Structures are given as structure tokens and as C-alpha cells.
């Protein structure tokens, strides 16, 4: 089992940058595929980015490709999301998640593929 705590959210102007962090506690962080999702009011939770166990492979939603970068530090049990060129439509609560059913090559995109979730951190982008 793993516990996840996000941080780094806040208010930023359009075009700005933020770096989200997700601190994981528990066992075998390096054996989980990790992902970032977001949820805006009235919308379903949507996939943003995912990364394999080792961090060697990543996957992004088309809406953030080229602007966001997911990374992980397994030695520090931490997941990151570097967000640049932010747009008002990026405004949402951002969640990190861990998938225990993945293999070392997986970058799951579905909410149902993830077993553990953080509490979320608010990102607000003003125009």
C-alpha cells in the first residue's frame, strides 16, 4: 500500500509555470506506474500524464503534450509534474495516483487502472 500527498498547486497567470510534487510513503514506490489526473468543476477526472516504474517511458494527454513534463525520483519516493505555458483551461484539482497492477512498461491512462490516490492540489490559471 502507498499513501500519496500532492503539493505545489496555486494561482498563476496564463503563460506561467508551476511544479507539482507528489510524496509517496509506503512500500515499493519504484514498483508502481504513476500518473497525474485533473478534475475541473462539473467535469470527470481526466488523464494528464503517466510514467513507468523506472521513469524511462512517459505518456501525455494531447492537451498537455509539449507543455507538461512528468518525472519521478525513486530514491526520494517523489513524483513531479512540471507545467509550463499554462492556460486558463488547465485550471483544475490535480491528483497523483499509483497503479499496483501495472508492469514495468505500463503507462496507464484510465482512472480505473489506479489503486491509490492523493487528496489533490488546486491549480488556478488566470487569464
Q: Which stretches are low in confidence, meaning pLDDT under 50 for 5 or more residues running?
A: none
Class inferred from helices and paired strands: mainly beta
What Rg, in angstroms, do the CA atoms define? 13 Å
Determine the fraction of residues in helical runs and give it as a percent range.
under 10%
Number of strands: 11
Main sheet overview: 7 strands, mixed
As an assembly, this protein is: single chain
- Overall pLDDT metric: 96
Q: Beta-sheet strand percentage?
A: over 45%
Distance between the termini: 40 Å
Tell me the overall shape.
Answer: globular
- Helix segment tally: 0
The run of helices and strands is EEEEEEEEEEE
Describe the structure.
By secondary structure, the chain is an all-beta fold. It has strands spanning 2-7, 10-13, 18-26, 33-39, 46-51, 58-60, 68-73, 78-83, 92-99, 116-117, 121-126. The strands form 2 sheets. Strands 2, 4, 5, 6, 9, 10 and 11 form a 7-stranded mixed sheet that branches. Strands 1-3-8-7 form a 4-stranded antiparallel sheet, with no helix packed on it. The radius of gyration is 13 Å and the shape is globular.
Amino acid at each position: 500500500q502507498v499513501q500519496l500527498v500532492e503539493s505545489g498547486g496555486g494561482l498563476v497567470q496564463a503563460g506561467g509555470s508551476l511544479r507539482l510534487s507528489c510524496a509517496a510513503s509506503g512500500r515499493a514506490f519504484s514498483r508502481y506506474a504513476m500518473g497525474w489526473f485533473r478534475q475541473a468543476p462539473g467535469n470527470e477526472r481526466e488523464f494528464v500524464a503517466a510514467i513507468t516504474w523506472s521513469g524511462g517511458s512517459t505518456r501525455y494527454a494531447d492537451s498537455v503534450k509539449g507543455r507538461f513534463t512528468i518525472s519521478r525520483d525513486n530514491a526520494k519516493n517523489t513524483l513531479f509534474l512540471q507545467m509550463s505555458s499554462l492556460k486558463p483551461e488547465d485550471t483544475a484539482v490535480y491528483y497523483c495516483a499509483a497503479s499496483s497492477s501495472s508492469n514495468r512498461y505500463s503507462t496507464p491512462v484510465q482512472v480505473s487502472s489506479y489503486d491509490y490516490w492523493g487528496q489533490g492540489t488546486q491549480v488556478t490559471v488566470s487569464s
